[in-house]
Amino acid sequence: MQHLYRPAAFVSGKRGSSSTKMATLAVRRVPLGGFSFENCKRNSVLESEANKVGFSVPTARKTGTTICGVVFKDGVVLGADTRATEGMVVADKNCSKIHYISPNIYCCGAGTAADTEMTTQIISSNLELHSLSTGRLPRVATANRMLKQMLFRYQGYIGAALVLGGVDCNGPHLYSIYPHGSTDKLPYVTMGSGSLAAMAVFEDRYKPDMEEEEAKRLVRDAIAAGIFNDLGSGSNIDLCVITKGNVDYIRPHDEANKKGVRTGDYKYKRGTTAVLSKAVNPLDLELLEESVQTMDTS
Amino acid sequence: MNSRGLRSQLKDSVPVAGLCPQGAYGVQDSLRSGFTSVKNELLPSHPLELSEKNFALNQDKMNFSTLRNIQGLHAPLKLQMEYRAARQIQRLPFLQSSNLALDTLRGSDDTIGFEDILSDPAQSEMMGEPHMMVEYKLGLL
What we know:
Chain A: The active site is at 65 (nucleophile). Chain A: Residues 256-292 form the Proteasome beta subunit C-terminal domain. Chain A: Its main location: cytoplasm. The structure holds 2 protein chains of 2 kinds. By secondary structure, chain A is an alpha+beta fold. Helices cover 27% and strands 26% of the residues of chain A. Chain A has a domain at 66-255: 4-Layer Sandwich (Glutamine Phosphoribosylpyrophosphate, subunit 1, domain 1). Chain A is built from 5 helices and 14 strands. Chain A is extended and about 80 Å long. The A-B interface holds A 1-6, 8-11, 13-14, 22-25, 27-28, 30-37, 40-42, 44-45, 118, 122, 125-126, 129-130, 133, 150, 153-155, 157 and B 11-12, 15-17, 20, 22-26, 29, 32-34, 40, 44-49, 51-52, 55, 96, 110-121, 124, 126-129, 132-133, 136, 141.
């Protein structure tokens, strides 16, 4: 018989020939879904042990990012860089930080990559169910409220800083959402480690009611400022232009950091070695049998 | 027919967490949980642990109290009666119930949260003992 540990209730077995071997039987209560805190104590013990020896626990992959958004005349432009870092190493040179929430709402994510990914996917599913239930196109304020309630519930342990933008029946909206659950509704927002560089560009050149091309150029310049002045951001610039009834997901909009082309080559050119003489001997081969065997590509 | 014996009901009301060591064979599992200390057993291992365990309960309490303030006492009373009835629709003692009626009442049948994605009880690696669990439920143990 199996021994069970981590039980919720203990019962001591008194009868039955099968229970004479063990002192304590356990009856398991059904476990709840969701986060399990079983390993927290063990992890803190391991971490303190590792720090004593000199190792450091591996860090989660962050997106160390520049993300921003701006409201223009007909809609919203969201921009993001494409570098994901893991400590001091670039983990992904071309990751996609603009996540789909609904056909008219997109969300950029900074912070821990897994957290932003899962959070936006959960909210996207919930918003889809909600819109099926109401029969209407979802509103940006709904997505904002769902996100802020979930992030506040987990008290900032879910490290997702988001820029949420979209166009609904009330016009274009742009929100910034912080990991602890506070939100701001603004005409232009930036988040991530490169947010100060991007905000500097916005503060200088933002005007209300811009045209689409002007807004795209502004966002591109803000992200470029983040890419060139912040170590955590780099590679390409992605843009997402959302207007009423139309979404333009431009990936990549601009390759700010192109990898260089090698100028020299170590291979020898043909003709480096001189050919003294050439002799060609054709081989007489007879074709006996030809058969075709088809591959199973189902 | 009352399928749950009185003894099992009494046992349910006394949670015995933390009083017995939690390794196999009833001995402290030093490899996995480190050395014992009273502080470790009494305090939660993560700041979110307690709030997550009681989240559904607290949400319900808050909703019922708002409902009572808006619509009067009968509204939460009626709803709680329905919850109690829905909670009693279960399968045989060892089997998982889908709790469909309870989910529909709560409104969690059209929302997705971490409790649906992470740590799905249907995929759990540990199993109870069918005979022991049936006997526990019937109060025969």
